Please model this.
Amino acid sequence: MRPSSSPSDRAGSALFAGVLSRSPVAEAVSDAAWLRALLDVEAALAVANAAAGLIPATAATAIAAACRDASVFDPRALGEQAAAAGNPVLALVGALEVAVGEEGGAYVHRGATSQDIIDTAAMLVTKRALDLIVDDVEGVADEAAALAERHLRTPMAGRTLMQQAVATTFGRKAAGWTAGADACTDRLAAVRDGLPLQLGGAVGTLAAFEAQGSAVAARMAEDLQLTNPVLPWHTIRAPIADIAGALGGLAGLLGKIAGDVILMAQTEVAEVSEQAPGRGGSSTMPHKHNPVAAISARASAMRAPGLVSTLLQCCMAQEHERAAGAWHAEWETLPDLVRCTGSAASWLRESLRSLQVDEQRMRANLQLSGPSAGAEAVAGHLSVRLGRSRAHQLVAQASAAITTAEFRARLLSHADVRGHLTAEYLDELLDPAASISDAVSQALAVTAAHHARRAGS
Amino acid sequence: MRPSSSPSDRAGSALFAGVLSRSPVAEAVSDAAWLRALLDVEAALAVANAAAGLIPATAATAIAAACRDASVFDPRALGEQAAAAGNPVLALVGALEVAVGEEGGAYVHRGATSQDIIDTAAMLVTKRALDLIVDDVEGVADEAAALAERHLRTPMAGRTLMQQAVATTFGRKAAGWTAGADACTDRLAAVRDGLPLQLGGAVGTLAAFEAQGSAVAARMAEDLQLTNPVLPWHTIRAPIADIAGALGGLAGLLGKIAGDVILMAQTEVAEVSEQAPGRGGSSTMPHKHNPVAAISARASAMRAPGLVSTLLQCCMAQEHERAAGAWHAEWETLPDLVRCTGSAASWLRESLRSLQVDEQRMRANLQLSGPSAGAEAVAGHLSVRLGRSRAHQLVAQASAAITTAEFRARLLSHADVRGHLTAEYLDELLDPAASISDAVSQALAVTAAHHARRAGS
Amino acid sequence: MRPSSSPSDRAGSALFAGVLSRSPVAEAVSDAAWLRALLDVEAALAVANAAAGLIPATAATAIAAACRDASVFDPRALGEQAAAAGNPVLALVGALEVAVGEEGGAYVHRGATSQDIIDTAAMLVTKRALDLIVDDVEGVADEAAALAERHLRTPMAGRTLMQQAVATTFGRKAAGWTAGADACTDRLAAVRDGLPLQLGGAVGTLAAFEAQGSAVAARMAEDLQLTNPVLPWHTIRAPIADIAGALGGLAGLLGKIAGDVILMAQTEVAEVSEQAPGRGGSSTMPHKHNPVAAISARASAMRAPGLVSTLLQCCMAQEHERAAGAWHAEWETLPDLVRCTGSAASWLRESLRSLQVDEQRMRANLQLSGPSAGAEAVAGHLSVRLGRSRAHQLVAQASAAITTAEFRARLLSHADVRGHLTAEYLDELLDPAASISDAVSQALAVTAAHHARRAGS
Amino acid sequence: MRPSSSPSDRAGSALFAGVLSRSPVAEAVSDAAWLRALLDVEAALAVANAAAGLIPATAATAIAAACRDASVFDPRALGEQAAAAGNPVLALVGALEVAVGEEGGAYVHRGATSQDIIDTAAMLVTKRALDLIVDDVEGVADEAAALAERHLRTPMAGRTLMQQAVATTFGRKAAGWTAGADACTDRLAAVRDGLPLQLGGAVGTLAAFEAQGSAVAARMAEDLQLTNPVLPWHTIRAPIADIAGALGGLAGLLGKIAGDVILMAQTEVAEVSEQAPGRGGSSTMPHKHNPVAAISARASAMRAPGLVSTLLQCCMAQEHERAAGAWHAEWETLPDLVRCTGSAASWLRESLRSLQVDEQRMRANLQLSGPSAGAEAVAGHLSVRLGRSRAHQLVAQASAAITTAEFRARLLSHADVRGHLTAEYLDELLDPAASISDAVSQALAVTAAHHARRAGS
Model:
């Protein structure tokens, strides 16, 4: 067989790839990458079969050699033939037999079923892609940790329900991102390192391996650097659920951080902007500067949960020993999920790397809510002295004032307040610096932990 | 610009296309199709701008001419440039200006914003793809109606909760599929015929059209055969929700019918099989025959709801006058949804077309549940005479018998029964034919309605 | 049977109802409402059976009478008994027989199957709830139209990708909300008015109705004010998909509008606030004022798409003549979807009703992006005279200026610009009022259409 | 405050609870359980505040005492008041202050924000419910392991794509279920044991705790038996994603097993049935016996993925320091997810416990596909001797025969076959027992591992 077309080396739409398929992950889940993985599995199967004495060593050598050159195989032709068999493996095995030649051809695919090859290839493709994603998530954590350290003591408005609440620091905010990314890295790496071989033969009983099935599986797992599961998992799809869960959680985190960046970059907030030459222009508004990286990260991440939903909702309920549809529905869904989450991670890393932070604007914005930063502290102090409702009433009345000075004056005009609060202590409570000392410690703890793990890894 | 690669003419993975991307729908939502649609929109914009006196007629002619030859543009290069602007239109406009040349180039894209071009192109792409899908859904209805007529009076087990209940006919079952498909065609066609132009300029106010915006929009809508909405819908995404809802409902129906076929094709049921030379083999079990078309239809349909979910969950909540991510997340999701639903429709049509029906087996299976077909009728008859609980008790005891004859004998052994039921009437109640007369009428009504609509359409 | 507990008259958690279950919709989908609907269906069945001569008229009268008083039945006890039969209807029928008494009891439920009763009751429950929701969506449109008229010419920043772009008006923005809500009302009303009766008997063949099935169905549909479908739809769940699609689209719109309100209410934007005495406080920050209604609307709406997804993903694929699980999974999902969408509509109506609009702040914010409002117009004007790239370059350079005056001065310092643009025309282009004339017309058209439909309805 | 109604002690619809809310999990996530948890958190906060010297010890004692009696508080009234504040905590704090009395009332809720209380209560509610679910999943594994051992060597048809493929054993099938359930238990227990305290104060900086925040958090975590996270996770919702992922995966497994049971229980397959007195009847077909437990398990499990989707899709993207809607949308979604997954686990345990296995029918069904069990083995043997295509051709031709004897005869009629296969070895290959020896070992390994973990736990 001669390829009528070169295998597509990027998955997804080329036209929208600039936004939705950033990062080499799109290559790692392409048809070319799948073909590579399918051939790797057939090669490993042959080698393991030979080691178990099930096929001649020369056949294994010939098969492994033929599997090395993926360019001989044409994914498009294989894909078309898949319509007859219901999957592309039968066609691949046929083409591989031809490539191996008369002698060893008959030993290709011995003992395995199509699902063994596709599922194991799916694990290889995912594992290789997860390496790239983990790298980008670590990059996100690195950038976030750097921001946390650079702006350790920069006060800014903490915002709840999209309203300014009390002060936090940008360092604390970025520390939250760091800790979130580090936790995702752990979960992703654990999933990646646990991805299992699938080998069971026709119905998962290893029947065709003449009692050597366990040995063959062990060898293949070792060669392919996958784990060797207690049982084949052909219709117990826990590995797919694990991947889906980990990537779904990651996409959620990436979307959250990207969303924060976009909100802070709003014209009226203007606390951050992305500074990347040539990026962020508008076709009609030359004056405009869009946080394209954060937006693209968010867009990419938004595609994930629907794909997770397909994997959990349809693809877990696999009937008996091979599903009639639910298995096949994974084939494009899983790579798409990997690709869009990978794109989001890569974009977010780039967004944080290019982030310009306007500390002055952060401070200025914090003034907008007047004494809010300290009002909570005052209310807390007075609550235990005057009762919560009286305290809140006094503070609420005083809060109607626009400036901190007015707030201070109004408060001290009440005898009730003066009886429990000296002007000096009031000033202390109203000092933004006072309220952020824990935020600074929190950020320091997180960045220290981040550096420790990076040093250790 | 010279294309470094030809635009991909099929969307999705080539390797899995045989199963998951059947039908020309995969071409209709490819990068090449998108490029064609984007250029159609730019051409229509130029023509409408000229008609409104906003650009010279010669410029419009030059632009329309340049838009005709899509091969000049390279989706991959445009896609890569999209990373800078956040969408591929700026790059396309640049390339189009070059293609148009000095004179008319400056009039390209006049007054529009990127989203106008992409959204309107999305409507064109979808409309063209829906034509193909409607054709296949009509084909599904045709095949189902033919089955209904061919097997109008073929009794088979009605099955509830996966247990045989009472008799129905295969004609009635297929009539249900027909009616379902006809209803989907109506909904799809209504959605297709209502797909709207999007033209609003930067923020939806048509501000750059010098008060000619309405005229430009009307002309574009007419030329592109889209509807002209009251208002631009840039962030009020009802058209997307309508498409998603209609395709989600269709996918549900296709999955249901495919599921019924798969269940009836089970080895132990064996009431239907797909007869298509060369399709349905297994790589390891030469004796096996899989209903590949129904399985592929089901697999394709299963991908739909997760994509619908993305469109409804993320993509509706578009902020202000253009969303920061939710819009972009539609770009691959919508074509994927169209593609997988289209693949399901095409596969299911093929499945029904190739369906071999074993009427004898249907009758034989119906005997498995013994007198069940008539037991409900007997219970109904006795209930109003002996009270429900006594009647059910008598029938349940008699039902423990395996054959209808035993059931009949046991029942008649009770004086209670004999007092209210003659042996003759009992035989009548136990005649499967008796219980299916309404099923036959139902099927006739549906197929008649189907033929009437097809004759009229 | 004596109720051991009164039926719950509100669905969902009481503790979180204040936020997530606003509006009488929570009552309309409660256990009490379901019980009412189930009894209505049994009553209508009896009446129709009598009209068709299948049961005595006296029995129908007795059954209808017994169905009138729902307080006799205990949903909790029925629910517990449902564990044995797999649904609560068998238990309800038993209790109803007791309530009717010896005479007519045996005629209860004649010819129907449990699914007929539950599905038809589901349509009744949904129809009644949709009346409430339509009312609230019309209320949303009314409030939005009033805002559109009140602020018809109020300029504000149009925002794309969360950045200020060019000017629009608040009237235009609210007109978009109005048009969106009016379109949803149309779709919802169409779905509501098409909700069908389900009557098919054990497997959908009407076999137990002695050839009177069509007549019984027609009469029931008329009495219950449901449509009478061509075929029973027990496992062709198009009505469920239609409801899901319509509510999913509505939830998307409500979430979008609520999101806009929340974004405009941000401390740093401050263009709107909700003014409702006693609402919006914080437990720890007495100075804070949260747009609770918009937030609650958004939260309620966010629950919808996942529920839609369940209905489309799991619940469409119903096997054969009754699904083994997919049907049952609808029972809580559908009411939850109705409830959360209804809550969102009610909250959003309240949010818009209480919306304080700060026109001055809108104008002030518009100044933040300097000449942006007019820069697009200038770029458009110059593009067709100097070529797009030169024009954009000049405008971009000038846009670096902070104020409109500086922008104007910089632009006019270029001979290129002066050659194609007089200072007078430049001022005209930079006048925000110029760019919003179409926005005003758009809003007028929408509000006029809204009033016309409300006058007509 | 006097309760106007007793708190609902079961979540979800009572009417459908028999099917969709089995198991005490419905109680564990009820309003009453939430109220209990909210009070537990306020009590722990007071105790920890006192330990840190932030409030008087007497106040803590009084608060803890008041928190003990949940019956004083009325969830419905609290829920209604939640409409004003946007959450029920402010109202609860008010009621608690009253309950505590003048003296200690002012120290209630000191330093915390509403989200701290609700999030930590959500973790408590979930943890308590997960205990119940883990118990049921262990029960599922126990039942499955018992089935695996009881039917260790029972041959049955392995089925791929819903067609009989080659033989497996029922023991092997049940071992797959066991291994799947054991893996889910591990994941669930890990998630449960890692559920964290949330304590951050207004914006997550612990600012109101006067530098004692870390100490207060540590003490609370210890008292409530939750983990103490590095940082508050108010808007980094990894714990929610973890719960969602684990329960989504579990629901998938439960649905898969339930689906297998339902398929095996089909009238035409009849390999298993549920034997539970009084369960499984039909309202109209007294002869029918439905696997109600498996169906209810499947229905309950089907509700999960849509809820997971809401948690991942909407609820992860939480803005800044408290989300404007995404947080609130979790409140009902999380308990519903816990409840439906718990119901599925409980039902499946019951289904497996009541499973009658018809070994004879399994053997009989295996005969239906003739020599299929051995045909694969024969094809494998001949492939390496005659080449795959010739071997498959010969086997396929022979497979057209209906009985194994015919198959054997046809095969041996070919000289090609006889040259490579003696009649004795052919008989060996065709012996079903031969093909299942690995299946037996697999099942033994899994059940041994299961017993080891149960002995150790």
About this structure: Residues 1-5 of chain B have pLDDT under 50 and may be disordered. The first strand of chain B starts at residue 155 and ends at 160.
